[in-house]
Amino acid sequence: MISFINYKGVPEQLEVVVDKQGIEELIEYLKFVKQSEDHIHLTLGTELHEYPENLEPGVINVKSVRLEFYKSDILDSDAKVL
Questions:
Q1: In this model, does residue 29 exceed pLDDT 70?
Q2: The whole model's pTM is what?
Q3: Shortest CA distance to 71 belongs to which of 33, 42, 41, 25?
């Protein structure tokens, strides 16, 4: 289960909710994007789940997420990545 949640009053905040299987699925989606140097769309009802089902007012299930590869020289430099 993968769910992306947004808050009406805090649009710059995004919450990612996953279970054990969802973590594995998300890793596979990210690996695909990295290997293909392309993008993938995750949509509600297919890859994304409506969780929680009974949303409180102001809580929004994100309906579509685009994971996109961005080629950058930043990580190819001597920059230290944690």
A1: yes
A2: 0.78
A3: 33
